[in-house]
Amino acid sequence: MNYRMFKVINQLAGHNRIVDFLMVTISKRSRFIYILVVIVLWFRHDSYKKMTLYTGVSVSVTYLLCTMIKLFFYKPRPFLKHSVHLLPPVPSKKDSSFPSKHTALAFTLAASVMVFHRIAGWSLWLLSILVGFSRIWMGQHYPSDIIGSAILGNGTAFVVKLTEQYWKPFVTRIFRSFTQFRSSYREL
Fold first, then answer.
1. What is the model's pTM?
2. Measured between alpha carbons, how far is 26 from 161 in angstroms, rounded to an integer?
3. Residue 149: which residues within 8 A CB-CB, separation 6 or more?
4. pLDDT by residue (tens digit) across 167-183?
5. What's domain 2-180's architecture?
6. What is the dihedral of CA 127, 128, 131, 132, to 10 degrees?
7. Which spans of this chain does the record mark as coiled coil (predicted)?
8. Distances (CA, A) of 71 to 64, 65, 104, 144, 169
């Protein structure tokens, strides 16, 4: 079933240059949209500064989890096991198919923003679905990788929010120390 769903989506790749270009662009460049939304919200109102801290912690935890999972769990990418329409950039053969770091990070950002700004969060969540879809389209992940990565990303954002009282003092202290260091460095 996983491969059949993959094939239904991936067989569409390579037939229309414009759609292929859009899928590659969504996969490679969508991170700039997420960053732009977070920056705009940061400057829009002081209450969104808390969102950027929460988002930064969530993204960091998700990145760490993805890296750890890939270290201990290897699942071959579709192009290693099947004949697929593979669109560049081609990832390393050593890189595991699960989790999709692109997808997990996209959903983490979307879920983190959604806690503070529903419209922006839902918009980013829809973009995250496109990011996941583009990874299948490009021949780099199976649908189960994308679904699992979406769950990982949303779940991480949820757990980070639930545990905010534990990590926030530590992260705030780090930022305060960095700010003090930076201001003392400028005085020199």
1. 0.89
2. 27
3. 66, 98, 99, 100, 101, 103, 104, 107, 132, 141
4. 888 888 877 777 776 66
5. Up-down Bundle (1.20)
6. -140
7. none
8. 11, 10, 16, 19, 30
